[in-house]
Design a protein that fits this description.
Elements (H helix, E strand, L loop, with lengths): L6 H15 L4 E2 L3 E2 L9 E8 L2 E9 L1 H12 L8 H21 L6 E2 L3 E4 L14 E7 L2 E11 L7
Antiparallel strand pairs: 1-7, 2-7, 3-4, 3-5, 3-6, 4-8, 7-8
Helix pairs in contact: 1-3, 2-3
């Protein structure tokens, strides 16, 4: 995966936190995903397809999910409810959608978000893709943006 594919997603995370959550998301150093299991217990997942294919994951702690939902829904949450899961899905959707618009060359479509909860869950990326992970620090705790995106190989004309 080319590093320039990740920049629109990084910008989208920071923008979403500033505009939707009135908060900052401080970026850490990117790294390549080497472990199969996610770092934290909540993952918002969106598939990308078009002239490129891949997956975007917003992996976060329970505390981050609760904080995001509390701000977005203007209520106080202490447990992972259906509303919290919906808020994580919406945040993931906003981030992927904003980044998609900056990657117009790939004519990307985004799937509906899915949210996975529970410890030690595994997200599978396209076979030939090693995701780039970017950690962020938020006021509620850590989250990791994981992006695995690759251009679709064009069929060779014969």
């Amino acid at each position: 995966m080319r590093v320039e594919y990740i920049n629109p997603f990084i910008a989208s995370v920071r923008n979403a936190f500033q505009t939707m959550l009135s908060s900052d998301a401080e970026r850490g150093a990117p790294y390549l995903r080497t472990a199969a299991e996610s770092d934290f217990c909540v993952s918002g997942v969106i598939g990308l397809s078009g002239d490129a294919v891949g997956t975007v994951v917003l992996n976060m702690t329970k505390e981050v999910a609760l904080g995001v939902a509390s701000v977005l829904l203007m209520d106080q949450f202490t447990e992972l409810t259906a509303d919290v899961i919906d808020a994580v899905g919406e945040l993931t959707n906003v981030i992927a959608g904003a980044a998609k618009s900056k990657l117009e060359e790939f004519h990307l479509g985004v799937s509906l978000p899915n949210v996975i909860t529970g410890g030690a869950h595994t997200i599978h990326f396209p076979r030939d893709v090693t995701p780039i992970c970017v950690p962020f620090k938020t006021i509620w705790g850590p989250l990791v943006l994981e992006v695995g995106l690759t251009p679709v190989r064009q069929a060779v004309a014969r």
